[in-house]
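Ticket reopened. Same input as before:
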Amino acid sequence: MQDSIEQYMQAVGQQARKASRVLSSASTHTKNNALSAIYTALVNHEPEILAANAVDMQKGRDSHLDSALLDRLELTPTRFKGMLQGLKDVIALTDPIGEITDLAYRPSGIQLGKMRVPLGVIGMIYESRPNVTLEAASLALKSGNAIILRGGSEALQSNKAIATAIQHGLKVAGLPEHAIQVIETADRAAVGQLITMTEYVDVIVPRGGKSLIERISNEARIPVIKHLDGNCHVFIDVEADLHKALPIALNAKTHRYGVCNAMETLLVHEEIAEEFLPRIAELYAEKHVELRGCQETRRILGSSVKTATEEDWYTEYLAPILAIKVVEHIDQAIEHINKYGSHHTDAIVTENYSKVRKFLAEVDSSSVMINASTRFADGFEYGLGAEIGISTDKIHARGPVGLEGLTSQKWIVFGDGQIRH
Amino acid sequence: MQDSIEQYMQAVGQQARKASRVLSSASTHTKNNALSAIYTALVNHEPEILAANAVDMQKGRDSHLDSALLDRLELTPTRFKGMLQGLKDVIALTDPIGEITDLAYRPSGIQLGKMRVPLGVIGMIYESRPNVTLEAASLALKSGNAIILRGGSEALQSNKAIATAIQHGLKVAGLPEHAIQVIETADRAAVGQLITMTEYVDVIVPRGGKSLIERISNEARIPVIKHLDGNCHVFIDVEADLHKALPIALNAKTHRYGVCNAMETLLVHEEIAEEFLPRIAELYAEKHVELRGCQETRRILGSSVKTATEEDWYTEYLAPILAIKVVEHIDQAIEHINKYGSHHTDAIVTENYSKVRKFLAEVDSSSVMINASTRFADGFEYGLGAEIGISTDKIHARGPVGLEGLTSQKWIVFGDGQIRH
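Engineering reply: fixed in the latest deploy. New output:
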């Protein structure tokens, strides 16, 4: 079995590599044609796709998947419409491939510039949500990359049905069918193969729980664009405008709980804590947010607030729970963020110019915000179109990753016969 | 021993991480001050450094190091001057850190942009040449990164002497001495530690032979900016201007042999081969370049030309040897380059507009050149100032890597109290 999985994955890899060569020089027109044909095929195949999803859902219920997972797995007609809209958005995006920038003459007489090119073959590993299949496939196609998709086994029928529509679209546009491949085995060995086929795969994008991503990062022999966790902070400075601070602190925590850009720890300057904390606590109480505070927070808000432990500062709750710490000054806030945070998204609320500059320069996170809710850190809000993930790495892509994160730049040189002396 | 190496390296890593936090927000003025102080210290320490190098050289001769290695190891007064000039060049470079680009308003009212930041801690692994110690240290410092340097054991005394001058310079400028650390053990286990300390090191830059780099890439748990090999091509199209083609083909092969951007295979369009090959062969003969040709090449040039085997197409000779293949058309040339090449640097010589566009779009190499010698692919010629390496990867940095390759961009958001709806 192990052998046959290896053979299967090697074949998938070879086909992807071959298809990627065609895709890399496909015109914008051809790629958009394929995406439009996929759109039409999806509309035509909607009943089959929803039926396949119903099979996955029934199997999921039979095997007692937890309700959050079942929720993510489900494709309703509304979600299906959302998927189609996402696809339309990708068609509307500017094709990044072939863009030439920075063309300038060097003293030798050569003219040097950079040209944007696809990475090649993307390996995508994800859990449950079948809409990721379409999102990832369309972003890969638009950016001239081939993609190998490995969704969760619980979504296999849904993903296969979506893949059928995608294949149909590729065929209509005359692009190789292996440009987008869905792994059709539930065997976990397939993932082990995918993340080590260095000759066939150029980058791995995992999406899912922290344990999945950690496992993949540890075992991959291929660069991984990974998103570990989002332990985000908002720091309310003594010079904060409370008309901004209160809505931001409320929005960053309560707009949605289960998302990576939600605030998990609130930091408050000690000279504003007496005024700010009781007012924000009242707003959190209305939303039933559980507060866990440092000693000073509990002195101000009362001992009904639980004590935050060292562990709390590290925790991404993804729930209506918030840790609160009173700090002496901005340096302590920055130190806390850089030490306990996950380098995802952190914000300061202040009117002070020099503190803005300090916070921007010293907070080591993929998004650093001034007087705005951390909830803005996402591909749509950043105008990237669809988002293939949010990277907490520093190498290659950082923060929300859209089309450009799936590309690279090569150097180009225009000469007139120059030789090196 | 293994334990103590681990403890030693962990301490080195922790200190580097700590120093990197200071460096990341050091001003351009402070960093340049430190570099100038290092310059002065090097000038003052020249006798000690050359004496230390003499010790390494003697030891090298005693242990029968080969002459190429001894040559790379040697620090002559002329080479020392070259090192100092390189340092001056780095001081003159624009500081990339803190650069803010693409600031634009989003529909939500937030203003979004990107800010250039250091990667953090660089691990540099290299062989013999002690000037790399200064080059890498100065580039890291200028770009706000801490660096851990692990040179070859044969250069240990030279590297320690250079490091002493560097430490002195850091001290004068008030920067942490651990910003630049030289590993002082010859134990190979130190490398194993360095490339797996994911919490303390952000990127590994290996420089050396292919086997060293392959070993490091395979074992590293940290992203590697690697340069495997340079199997470069020049394709002489039927529409080539021979006044350009002859000098380029000669220069790309014979300007220097032991460099990664030298041409290793010459591809010639069949309709120009009869005219071009005898003329270029004459020029190569003057330089005593050994030719290995395909069947058609040997038909034209005579059977004194050796037969090129499949193996030859893959080979980076780094020597006065050249493989030659006659191809039917540009597609065959591109296919050959993408299949056998190392995606380093490849050139076409042609006057045809559409072939230029095709070659640029379809050749998958870090540098793609039109009517210019492949020898131009280097950090100095590209105006990057010093070069920390040439990357044959697509992720993060591609081609010659200078200061910018040691940086990353974070997103920054300026708001006025915006929350997400």
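The domain at 232-376 of chain B is CATH 3.40.309.10 (Aldehyde Dehydrogenase; Chain A, domain 2). The CA atoms of residues 53 and 75 of chain B lie 6 Å apart. Please confirm and we'll close it.
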